[in-house]
Design goal:
Layout (H helix, E strand, L loop, with lengths): L1 H8 L3 H4 L4 E5 L5 E2 L4 E5 L4 H15 L1 H14 L6 E2 H4 L10 E2 L11 E5 L2 E4 L2 H19 L1 H11 L1
Parallel strand pairs: 1-3
Antiparallel strand pairs: 2-3, 4-5, 5-6, 6-7
Helix pairs in contact: 3-4, 3-6, 6-7
Length: 155
Amino acid sequence: GVDFVSRLVGDNPIYNNSKFKFGIDKKQRSYFDNVDKIYMALHKKADVVSHEIGHYLEKHNPELLKNSIEFLNRRTANESPVRLKDLFPTYNYGINEIIKKDKFISEYMGKIYIYNGEQYATEITSMGLELMYKDALEFAEKDPDYFDYIWEQFN
C-alpha cells in the first residue's frame, strides 16, 4: 500500500513530506488516529493501507482536504443527509455518522465528517486511493469523474 501510493503520487508535494507511523490494532480495526499514526489490523491487505494513507494525506494537506470537500459537495449538492445506521442497521455505526449518497460506487464515499460545525475529513481521498489500488481500470469505468479527480490530485 505504501509503495503503491508513493508510485502514484511521485514527486507531488502533497505526499512528499509525509511522515506517518504505523501501529498494530489488537481489536482488528484499521484506522488513522487523526494525528500521525495509522493503526492496522493484522492480516489486512495493502488496499486498506492505501485507504488509511488517504486519511493522513487529507489531514496534513489543507489544499487536498479543501479539494476533496469541494468535490464531495459538488457531487452531493442535491442529496439529503442519511444516517449510516439507518442504511446499515446491522453494522456498528454511530447515530451521528451520516452520508450523502450520490451515485458513488459505495455509499460510504459520501460520509460527512463534521466537528464543531467544521468539515475536517472526507472519504474521497481514502476510498479513491483504495479503489486505485484494487482495480484502477474498474474504478475509471464505474465512476470516471471520481477517478479523474483522484488522478488529478496526485499527478
